[in-house]
Request: fold
Amino acid sequence: MGLRRHAIVGLFAVLALGAWHLEPAETPTPAATVALATAIGGAPAVAVPAAQARRAPEPLRAAPQAPVFPNLAALAATTRAAAAVADAPPEPALEPIVAPPADAVGPDELLQVRWTVERRMPLVDVAGNWGMWPKDLRELNPGYDADAWVDAGTRLVVHVADPRKPTQSVGAPNKGHLLRGIPLPEGPAWRLREHRPRAFGSATTITALLTAMRAYAAADPSAPALRIGELSRRSGGHIDPHVSHRSGRDVDIGYVLKDPAPEGERFWRAATESSIDAPRTWAFVQALIATGDVQQIFISAKLQRVLAREAAKHVSREEVERIFSAANPDARVHTIVKHEHGHRDHMHVRFACEDGNLRCRSSSVEAL
Reply:
């Protein structure tokens, strides 16, 4: 009996000792497994679902002998190559287009837009100049009767935006419309025609245009005011004689001339190679591009060549060729400034779609 008891105790001891030797070591975390496998050039371990982990272990088999860290040679070669790249001189980068500093457009600046009445006129005429019903203008400016006159120098509110309902450019520039357009605000460095029902754009357009015009003025406070033509109607859509200008992303701007037309004369005049003020016009084009929101600028090829020569004084040849189609020998290259007939007296600037606006189509349909 004593002999049998000693045999049973010995058997349990052997089994316990064997189980202790077969118990696996502490399992590394998935992150540690991936890091280790990556470091030695191996493939990261694949996580095993909990249901599979609970299954009975398969019988132990002898694993084939393999060299430790088999990819160390490849890893070392890769490290040497990376070090060589890091030590190599950087590739020359194109000079960025940087505009002079300008006052930033504040987040609330476009929520309420005011303009100064330049000459005494009836309130109904002021409303007509902005494409508004007189009652709507009176609601924005309480205290005026229906037959009231407005004195010169009076600043009237012509637009109030709802921040919960932002502007939206819908469709293509020549096949689209504009939701809740914003009028171009007043400023000392630019002029609008007195009749302004087509002075509306998307928030991106107005913000970028203001930024560029302020940079233009900051670079040269003595520069003549820019003459701003038509943008879009408050709700966009077709406007004669334009093919585009329908979705709040297009604006016509007169060239800066050496001898600008006096106030009261024709709003803008055709520019020639000798009459265009190349330094100031280039400064404005540069400021437009620097906003990062310009998609395309249309300028006559003859005037482009004048501006390209001026630009070459300030930026690299590669930048000049990237900007002006008339300066690029490869017609297949997409440049920011392109030639288009009918742009001898003004440039046509097209701004980009708003970020995240899936209803905006970047390019026109079969036309400018």
About this structure: Residues 11-94 have pLDDT under 50 and may be disordered. The first helix runs from residue 2 to 22. The longest strand covers residues 155-160.
